Amino acid sequence: MQVGGSATRIPPMTLPPGTRLGPYEIVAALGAGGMGEVYRARDARLAREVALKVLPSEVATSPDRLRRFEQEARAASAISHPNLLTVFDIGEQDGVRFLVTELLEGETLRDLLERGPTSAAKALELTAQFARGLAAAHERGIVHRDLKPENLFLTRDGHAKILDFGLAKVLEPTAPQELATQVGGFPTRHPPHPPHPLDARQETAPGQVFGTVAYMSPEQVRGRPADARSDLFSLGVVLLEMLTGRPPFRRDSAAETMAAILKEEPPRLSTSGVQLPPALERVVRRLIAKVPAERYPTARALLADLEGPAAAHGSGISGISGGAGGASAASRSAGFGSSAGFAGSGSSGIRLAAAPPSIAVLPFADMSPARDQDYFCEGMAEELIHALARLPGLRVASRTAAFQFKGHAGDMRAVGDRLGVESVLEGSVRKAGERLRITLQLVDVASGYQQWTGRYDRDLADVFAVQEEIAVAVAQALRGVLAEIERKASAPAPTHSVEAYECYLRGRQFFSRFDRRSLHLAREMFRRAAEIDSDYALAYAGVADCAAFLFGMWRGGEAALAEADTASRRALELAPGLASTHASRALALFLDGSFDDAAVEFEVALRLDPLQFEALYFYARMRFEQGQVEEAAALFERAMGARPEDYQAPVLLGMARRALGQEAGSLEALRRGLDVVSRHVELNPDDARAYYLGGLACVRLGERERGLEWGARALELEPEEPIVIYNVAGIYALAGESDRALDCLELAMAGGWGRKDWLAQDSDFETLRAQPRFQALIAS
User: Fold this and answer.
1) Is 302 in contact with 236 (CB distance < 8 Å)?
2) In sequence order, what DSSP letters do the residues of 634-664 get, joined into one string?
3) Does domain 108-146+173-340 match CATH 1.10.510.10?
4) Which CATH number fits domain 684-780: 3.20.20.70, 3.40.50.2300, 3.90.830.10, 1.25.40.10?
């Protein structure tokens, strides 16, 4: 028989039977955990038995332990939920502090697992119950931070409960001068660079890591603040232990365990010898993703995958009972019958929500004799991304996400996990004269095996036809059955000229680098493509975008603005049905100051394609410059949904929310942006924009030194780029380095940066607005 708290042994009796604490009479000792001793007691007033947790006398005088003990009481008593231990009372008598909870009969999950792994049905049933408890806690701003089998309890009547909120963080507003990050909408202190203790359970003294090592999230190992996603990581570790019988990251020492959490991927369920559905693998991989932004954002989102969208908002899973029996009809119909490894006790009713097939297309390797076709290989992959994205029901990783893995020679399973897709398409292109050889393989992420391979030998003139042919073959391999790509919905070949197409691809490659020199080169290639084929709408759109950016970001002059206007008009005239041509026209109008006309074009682009990232992102920037910050925030949020791997939108959303006075929401967005940026710079260490936007997020989140380091790295990479210098000025301003910030602002404007309206709204410079040098810059 166990109670709330990590009861693991029967200790010597500190309080003998018959001892009274207020209205409670000690009956017997039950066990002891890291935060106290636990007794069976009787409540004389209500004639009921309860569990009574006492803080040991040897630590009762410790202010930190007392604070922690009271924190547990506050955390647990703040919520009432069937999957959380119920707290009745807290008290003190004769120097003894105690907590009173319901008395549970049953066993901990650790007791159960000592007898071996559970069935998949049982594991999912318990995971769903624990997730419901977490959802209730998280929605009250409470993060547990120490989920493990010892703190998870199974009652005799089939209920699962979360115990021991001794490490829970009750998130309360902090003083303005405190360094803070956000969890569930409440600030919590961020300890500065804590060491990594090696003991099994880490106490919460300042500068220490929180939690139990084998179940910690990567951010806890690094000493960074834990939020709801940290609890979900720990729950994923527990789920894996239920399925396999051992914690996936546990090693011989705490230090080795921490290293495994940070760097290693656990073995796949498909190699465990138990037949399990691929959908379960996806759930587990998302729970234990190394980067918090790649995990489920909330416990409710996890429940939506476990139970289906409707059940995630209901009071429970239909069909859960303590009786014996196999998988329910609902679970059998979803492929979770006994043949899938779900036989066992407990009728779960769990069903994993069906996810659409998903794929990432990596840049193809250049196998041409001269190795000079890199632009063509990237362009082929990008066109396939676009072709596959037109297929209904198929989720395709964006170019930005997939191209991070250019030249990746490792395990495609690791790539697929990072991108959150089921399949990865990789290949090579050999271009010799007017002949092409394209070799492809489609890899199943779960197993690592090939799903499909193909080789295409074609004339270069057939490049557009072969792209569509490959798209059909890939879709068939993914879906098993594909009626046919809807030819009416497919875009026609964008140009009749292969030469123009090659120029366009070179332009796209330069354009993606987004610096002044690359934009000039991209514009020249787009111009050449349009000269070769005067009806090439996308080439004109490319010219317009380059000219618009050169005007808006680098003071390209009236000639650049005029070219953006002319080229965007021509692109729209040639292809009025493309969202991209309307977005290009909108951008040109926006940078010319024609905000109303630009808004019309942005809206048309988004009607044609609601997930058109460029339209959402630049529409948001325009609204921000206009001072319509609330609408800008909503658009930045939509842009985040359209391209989750983008780091720009969440950082700018953080700035917009701060301007609206939404400090908690601002820090939440910045934390997400910093997660994405941190992952991005690992694969793109020469991206100055990522470093300066990440640096802004760091300083906002209290990581001042890291932010300054990232700003210095951005300047090191692009020391003469005005847009880089401008944003580093923002880092200095936020860090309290006013003179350095103003120096950078003056240098940026002298070098060509000139968005006065943006500067007027930019909340990064609030502390500088009263200074004469800043006012002079605005006036200039």
Assistant:
1) no
2) HHHHHHHHH-TT-SHHHHHHHHHHHHTT-HH
3) yes
4) 1.25.40.10
Q: Which of 406, 127, 367, 94 is nearest to 240 (CA)?
A: 127
Cβ-count burial of 757 within 10 angstroms (0-12 exposed, 13-18 middle, 19+ buried)? middle
What totals of helices (H) and strands (E) does the chain contain, helices first? 29, 21
Residue 146 falls in the annotated catalytic set:
yes
Confirm whether pTM is higher than 0.70: no
The catalytically annotated residue of 43, 146, 227, 675 is 146
Q: What is the pLDDT of residues 366-423, one digit of tens each?
A: 888 878 888 888 888 888 887 777 676 677 887 877 887 877 766 787 788 777 788 8
Neighbours of 362 (CB within 10 A): 22
Decide which of 492 and 455 is more confident: 455
Q: Which of 526, 522, 524 is nearest to 538 (CA)?
A: 526
Residue 729: what pLDDT? 94
CATH of domain 358-479: 3.40.50.10610
In this predicted structure, what is the pLDDT of residue 275? 60
Q: Are strands 96-102 and 450-459 parallel, antiparallel or unpaired?
A: unpaired
| Of 214-223, 442-451, 642-651, highest mean pLDDT | 214-223
The whole-number pLDDT of residue 707 equals 93
Q: What residue spans define the domains of the chain? A: 20-104, 108-146+173-340, 358-479, 684-780
pLDDT-based confidence at 600, cuts 50/70/90? very high
Quickly count: other Cβ atoms within 10 Å of residue 478's Cβ: 23
Angle between helices 688-700 and 704-717 (to 10 degrees): 160
CATH number of 20-104: 3.30.200.20
